[in-house]
Amino acid sequence: MLKIYKFTVYLVVFILPLFVKQAFQNTVFPIFLSAIFISPVFYKSISIFINQFNEKMLKKRATTSFFMMFLVVSFFSSALSVDKLRSVSQLGLFIASFIVFEGVKYLFNNIEDKKKIAIILILSVLFLSVLSLYGTLVIHYVSFIDLSFYGLYFGHNHLSALLVFAIPLTGYFMFINKENRKFYPLFACFGIFFLALLNTYSRASVLALIISVYLTVIIFDLASKKKILLISAGVLFAIFVLDRNIISFSGDFEILKSQSSAIRIQYWNRAINNFLAHPVLGSGPNTFGFSSKIASTDSAHNFFLQMLSDVGIFGFLTSLGLIIAVFINAYRVTSRSLKSLNNRRKAEGYFFLALWIGILASALNNLVDFDWQIPTVFYIFWILAGLF
Asked: 352 and which of 43, 259, 302, 334 could share a cystine (Cβ 3.0–4.6 Å)?
C-alpha cells in the first residue's frame, strides 16, 4: 500500500510543474486531491508524534509543532478574513502542504526513494526548460511572436522557481557520476537548466542560487579561508554583472519595469500598513492584494511580510519559526551525514547538501519575490523539505 502513496507523490512532482498556467485555481485541485489521498500516511505520522510526545520528540520534530501552530492561527485568521473565499482556499493549500510534508517524512526514509523524487523533478523541469528555451529563443526572438512573460515559455517565477531546486540536484548527480557515461547527459541537462534560468530573466532566482551556494560553503565549512575569499570575490562580481545586465537584456518587457526595487518597496510598505490595520490575525490568508488595493499584484513580494499582512503577528512569528525549524533540521541531517565515518552515509550527505542549496535558494528568493504564492512551487518546497 505504501508504494501507491509513494507513486502519488512521484506523479504530483512530475505533473504539477507542467500546468501551462500556474494560476491558483489551475493547480490547487490536484494538490488537494493528492493531499487527501495520502492523508492516511499523514495520520500515521501525526499519531507517532502525539503518542510519543515529550521534550525529545518536540525538539526532534519542531517543524511539526510550528506547522500546527501556524495552521491554528491561519484558521482563525480565515474565519475573520476580509475575503473568506480566498482565505479558505489558501488555508486549504497550507493544510495540504502540511499533509504532504508529514507524509513524505513517513514514506521516504530510504535514500534511493528520496533520489527518485529528485530525478522525477529534474525530468519534469527539463521538459519545461526545453519548451521555455524553444519559446524564448525561437518563437519570440526569431519568429517575433509575442509571448506572455509569465507563461510557460519565458517561465518567469514559474520555471525559475523550480530551477533553483533542479540545478543543485543535477549538480549532485553529476558529481556522483563523474567517472561514468551518465555524466555527459547530466552535464548537458545542467547546461540547459542554466541557460533556461538566464532566459527567464529572473534576477532574484539567479542571485538567490549564487548566494545559497556561497552560504552553504561557509556554513558547512567546505573550503579553506583562502578559497572562501576567492568565492566571495566571484559572488560579488557575479552579482554586479547580473544586476547590470539581466535587465538590459530584457528591457523590452514592461513587466520587468513594474517589478523594480521601488515598486517592491511600495508593496512592502503596503504590507506593513495592512498589518498595522489588522495586527493580531491579519486581513486573512491571501488577501494582500484585496486589502492593499493594489490591482497589479496579490503578493507583497516577500513571504514573511505577506504573512505579517495576511495572518498578523502570530502568523508571522509561527511562519518564521517554521522556516527556521526546517533549516535547523536540514542542517542537522546534512551535517551529521557529511561528518559520518561511514562512506555510504557520507555520500548521502552530498545529496542532502544539494537539497539544502535548493530550499535555501528558494527561501532567499522569496524575500524579494512571490514564488511561494504559486501553489506548485510552495507544495514542491514542502515535499523536498520533508526529505530531510
From this structure: 334
Per-residue exposure over 327-344, b if at least 16 CB sit within 10 Å of its own CB, e if not = bebbbebbbebbeeeeee
- Long-range pairs for 108-116 at CB < 8 Å and ≥24 separation? 108/6, 108/9, 108/386, 108/387, 111/348, 111/351, 113/6, 114/351, 114/387, 115/351, 116/10
- pLDDT above 90 for 36: yes
DSSP for residue 387? T
**46-91, pLDDT tens digit by residue?**
998 888 777 777 777 899 999 999 999 999 999 999 989 889 999 9
Instruction: Report the distance separating Cα 52 and Cα 58, nearest Å.
Output: 9
Distance CA 244, CA 239 (A): 8
- Locate 369 and state its grid cell: 519575490
The helix-helix angle for 183-199 and 159-176 (nearest 10°) equals 160
Among 148, 150, 47, residue whose Cα is nearest residue 103: 47
Long-range contacts of 51-59 (CB under 8 A, 24+ apart): none
Question: Binning pLDDT at 50, 70 and 90, where does residue 341 land?
Answer: low
For 31-67, give one letter per residue: b (16+ CB within 10 A) or e: bbebbebbbebbeebbebbeeeeeeebeeebbbbbbb
Across 20-24, 132-136, 220-224, least confident range: 20-24
Let me know: does 285 contact 91? Beta carbons within 8 Å.
yes
**Whole-angstrom Cα distance, residue 384 to residue 162?**
12
- Averaged pLDDT, 288-305: 79
Q: Which of 115, 153, 148, 117 minimizes the C-alpha distance to 132?
A: 153
CA of residue 9 relative to chain centroid, distance: 16
Q: Whose CA is closest to 88, among 97, 79, 96? A: 79
